[in-house]
Amino acid sequence: MTVRLLFGAVVLVIFFAAPHFLAEFQLFQVCLIAATALVVLGIVVVTGIAGQISLAQAAFVGLGGYGPAILAARYGVPVWAGIMITAVVVGAVGYALGQLTLRVSGHYLALATMAFTAIVQLAFIHSDAVTGGAVGMQMPTLEISGKTFASGGTLYYVVLPVVGVLFLAVHNLIHSPVGRAFAAIRQSETAAAAMGIDVLAHKSAAFAASGFLGAIGGGLLGLLSTYLDPSQFGITQAVYYLAVAVVGGMQSPLGAIVGSAVFVLVPEFLQAFQTYLGLVFALLLLVFIVLRPNGLVSLASDLLRIVGGKQQRGAA
Amino acid sequence: MTSALLTIQNLTVRFGGLVALDDVSLDIAPRSIQAVIGPNGAGKSTLINVATGIYGATSGRVDYDGARIDGRAPHAISRLGIARTFQNTELFGEMSALENVMIGADRHMCGSYLSSAMHGPAYWRTEQAIRAEARRLLELVGLGNDTDVEAAALPFGKQRRLEIARALATRPRLLLLDEPAAGLRSAEIDELNSILLDLRANLGLTILVIDHVMALVMAISDHITVLNFGRKIAEGSPQEVRSSPEVIKAYLGEKAAHASHS
């Protein structure tokens, strides 16, 4: 318990100290990493833990961005409320999508969720009157009780706490009967059902969680980019999120953060190679699938084990 | 027989042209250990799979504790108090032995999604209780020293016992064991026998064992049913079954049956 309190205190200190040491643009990047990590956390839950391959994440992100933007433009709903309402609705959409798993699984599920992403993107492009069509639409600025949050420096105080709380909730969920049921379903559906686990309900719940997390992440990403471009919510982007999860490590929330950091920061270091960025990411994905299917996080835990093993031998 | 815990009536299961079970009836009395034996392909596993909801019945019915259960979902049947093990073991391989058993116990103590996400005091209490229960069950089947071992890394004999512990964690009244002795050495079979007898004595369990390993079945069963090519060819006490010419014929062939008569 004291360890947890200490950890919490350290996190809080870093949170409040960081703005004093980082430049505006770096804070913006931290926000970008956090929001991307939240999106990828949805994949960790549905694919990494529950074992259901999903290429629907880009669609959830898109809905999570367009939802509050449309609610604000048409009905004057405050953006923060719009993001929350949209996330709940998208969670329900995710639940419905999860019911698909009754009929399709494995590669076919990947194709079905990919089709979902394609359909949602087409809807964004062709509903000109509501979404601005292929041109896209402006994401309204976040305002909470008269204060506006428009820059990396101010959004930092919104994005990080939201992402932090949701990561904590998911971490807890994974280490609970619900998370164990998800993992059980991934490893053997037959045995899970024989243990009294309602497989379909749990798969749907995992999809609902991925929808909810993707939508909140999408809302936050919208606030950061300030513009919604429908080309950003297609199949390529769905594969991109999956790649972030694979590189970071599918099976733990930490993997989502590590992967997002890599995918947000690497382009900064490779400014000169902008044209080949897609190739770099594709190679990364390939290398990790073949050599490190459990991602960077597993690399770290293996290293820890080696170091720990050496220490034990040294003590003996 | 209204007193039976599980009643199988005129059960027929067809897969396309293949008749896996043909008009099989069976009663399992509470607190009994019963066995279904037969050569490979006799339909033994199909019987368990229908009773646990994995397959539906083509005709006939299965009743448990006064309610019809064939055609219900596997998880619903599990919650009624029927637990099972699998012929080729279906463990959660990446999890530790303890976690495997905890999953069985979760259904009884699990809180809501909200309490799972918050990790409040209620969560810690139930988590402790689940852990303690799982540890106790592992000790019961002799895996007290293997709690943290990854299930897939356990030797086969221990995997089988882990499956039994996991099944017990769902707090069943009826335990269905699908070939629990296959691939076990004879010392391990003796161990398994004493575990099963203990379970009945201490927990009042009803047990149905499916096997073709006679050593296990003959030693502990009150009642044995013999299947061959999906049909019931004999039933009775171990002694009766052992001397049945039909059974000898099915197991050892026509000549042996004649030899035992003469």
Tell the overall outline of chain A: globular
- Series of H and E elements of chain A: HHHHHHEEEHHHHEHHHH
Q: How far apart lie the N and C ends of chain B?
A: 38 Å
Q: Largest chain-chain contact?
A: A-B, 26 and 38 residues
- Residue runs with pLDDT of under 50 for 5 or more positions of chain B: none
What Rg of chain A is obtained from the alpha carbons, in whole angstroms? 20 Å
Describe this structure in words.
The complex is a heterodimer of chains A (316) and B (262). Chain A has 316 residues and is mainly α. Chain A has a domain at 26-246. Chain A is 77% helix and 3% strand. In chain A, strand 2 (142-144) and strand 3 form a beta hairpin. In chain A, helix 3 packs across helix 10. With 262 residues, chain B is an alpha/beta fold. In chain B, the strands form 2 sheets. In chain B, strands 6-7-8-3-9-10 form a 6-stranded mixed beta sheet, with helices on both faces. In chain B, strands 2-1-4-5 form a 4-stranded antiparallel beta sheet, covered by helices on one side. The interface between A and B is medium-sized, with 26 and 38 residues.
List keywords for this structure.
heterodimer; A: 316 residues; mainly alpha; two-stranded antiparallel sheet; two-stranded antiparallel ribbon; 14 helices; 77% helix; disordered C terminus; B: 262 residues; alpha/beta; Rossmann fold; 2 domains; six-stranded mixed sheet; four-stranded antiparallel sheet; 23% strand
Give a short synopsis of this structure.
The complex is a heterodimer of chains A (316) and B (262). Chain A contains 14 helices and 4 strands.
Q: What is this structure's SSE topology?
A:
The complex is a heterodimer of chains A (about 325) and B (about 260).
Chain A: H1 2-21, H2 24-49, H3 57-75, H4 79-99, H5 107-126, H6 128-131, E1 137-138, E2 142-144, E3 147-149, H7 152-174, H8 177-187, H9 189-194, H10 199-225, E4 227-228, H11 235-248, H12 253-269, H13 277-291, H14 295-315
Antiparallel strand pairs in A: 1-4, 2-3
Chain B: E1 6-15, E2 18-28, E3 33-37, H1 44-51, E4 59-64, E5 67-68, H2 74-80, E6 82-84, H3 97-109, H4 113-118, H5 121-140, H6 156-169, E7 174-178, H7 186-203, E8 206-211, H8 214-220, E9 223-228, E10 231-236, H9 238-242, H10 245-252, H11 254-261
Parallel strand pairs in B: 3-8, 3-9, 6-7, 7-8
Antiparallel strand pairs in B: 1-2, 1-4, 4-5, 9-10
Helix pairs in contact in B: 3-5, 3-6, 5-6, 7-8, 10-11
